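Side project, low priority. Logging it here so it doesn't get lost.
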Amino acid sequence: MSRVGRKPIPIPKGIDILVDGSRVEVKGPKGILQKSFHPQMKIKIGDGQVYVETPSESKFNKSLHGLTRTLLSNMVQGVKEGFQKVLEIEGVGYRAQKEGQGLVLQLGFSHPVHFMPPEGIELVVESPNRVVVKGRDKEIVGNVAAKIRSIRKPNPYTGKGVRYEGEKVRRKTGKTGAGAGTGTK
């Protein structure tokens, strides 16, 4: 049995969870999240906690057990507190500006890049080189942050680009000077 899957999920005050077969709806101060899970996983509510039960000890069911529990836990945390990812923009002249609900990014291209987030995602520009992606669904927050990062990934030679907060960029050495690569000694 999955060790993660056995752990019950406590239901905080102000959070309502409705289970309808394999479909779960979680309501809280940040909004509503709905998700359908594999029909073999049994989701039960009791004693102010949510339990996930598996029908057998097969490898497939063990993996689904832990996954289902983690996704449910993320749904509860998302409607209670929400999730966020911080992006840092590095480079001379590289910056972000808020425009309505979206972003305008200056990333060294000949034109500004306009980015509109999907429904339920909030973009906050704390400074011209720091963007925070906020939302209640962890998966969508991560996908939006990855899309913004993919517009200009960090360059391994100069370090310029968009990176996650705390991300280490492995730097490569450039050419070493005269005679490099010519085979002379």
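Brief comment: The chain has three helices and 13 strands.
Revisit when time allows.
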